[in-house]
Amino acid sequence: MTNCSVHNFSKINRLSAFLARAGTAAKRHKSRLAVAALLLLAAIGTFGAGDGILIPSFAVFPNPSGFIATVNQGGPTVQASNPFFQDLGSNGRRCVTCHEPGDAMSITPPHIRQRFNSTQGMDPLFRLVDGATCPTADVSTLDERREAYSLLLSKGLIRIGITVPGNADYQVISVYNRYGCNATDVISMYRRPLPTTNLPFLSAVMFDGRESTPATGTTKILYSNYPTSLLNDLAHQSVDATTGHAQGDGTRPTPEEQQQIVDFETKLFTAQIRDHEAGKLDEGGAKGGPASLAAQPFFISVNSSVHFLLPAFEQPGGEVTPGDGHFSSKIFNLYNEWAQGNDSEGGERAARYSIAHGEQLFNTLEIPISGVAGINDDVAAGGLVAGGVPLLQGSCGTCHDTPNVGNHSFPTPLNIGTGDPSPTNHSVNLGGLDISDLPEITVCKKDPTTGQPTNNCKTTTDLGQALIDGRFDHVGKIKGPILRGLAGRAPYFHNGSAATLADAVTFYNVRFNLNLSQHDQDDLVAFLRTL
Known about the structure:
about 25% helix, alpha+beta
């Protein structure tokens, strides 16, 4: 975690004292308390570490779109007593170093740059092990540190180095990494820290699922073993994160500390609560904000879009109850009540109508899905049917099917092309977004008889699941993240290639030839920023 100044400690402790004095009055004056807490937290920017510092039951933070809120169902948490906020490794990092409450439990470039500037690049976040573009980078001067941590500063990317599995059915032919990490046995990839909130809705832990697979000694999360599998996988992840990111020696977190970390983070629910243009997101019949999210029913494979088409897959499925045989593409129903009216009225009503229309587009827009590994490829490669399906007419809910949450409710990694260079311009991905600052990795499938590389090759910036299970067919496959709290944690996609939500919408518009009007794109962005 950040080593905040004594001045910041003082402000945080004033917030804690204020909350304590408020007592039962807080229940009668929630909005007044939220505003007061917001003002103090906005001044602080991040939480600091120290005895007596409190993580409240309800915290509000500003972001460019409005305000985001986190409900802590575990009740007020004293940082000194919870290992999530403690130094468990050797380099000063803590879980909260990369999972800041003010950044929807992730980290964002503006706050990262603040931390760099205030500490001259010496904050624990800036460590060679994975904060730098390559661990061999020179960090002897301020300018050198700025260069070494350039991807962290610009896109909030952490370097993830993973050894190619010994049983891989592919060979890494070449790695072009402008930062010097060109090894072909340990591959450097650059990814955004996933938020440690809204975790009970997860169907896989980590972008590549490496904390939810027998390949790493963890457990695939299924209907039959949830939530035990999820909780165990999160505990395992807390150890891996400490030994890796914090360079711990493996003795901590202890089993008891693992349990404390998991208990804390699985009781956090985060969502946008107020929009600058539309106002409060739980007014006028709307159901935005973290309170309704925390009450959202969930089971593994709920509303599975795949099970509805192919009952042998993603069992048991079911829109409302396990195995009910239904699916609805109407993934979100937060703003139905705002759909009355039009956007010519101006002001708050127009903004609310725009959000409701964006939600309708998310639920009903037809998307011709093609070239997506995990959907269109052969069933033996992880697709849906034998021989593959060249085109599947789907919707946003085909991949984002968890009701009012937006991730996929079953562990189904996909490659939609966010990390794959365009065949005509390798500096952008398949949706036209800049990936020129990421490495190019070329792998070729091995001949099963000779073990030699064939001419069947792929070039990407991130090997994804293939670096975990060693399967060529899984190159570039990653999970889709939970969509709640988006406005608080830009940039987007696993590699930060979408600087804004407008960029994310542009990706889909280009990648799948949607031909969306600018009006529809704007309404989709208006909706996404309220999640």
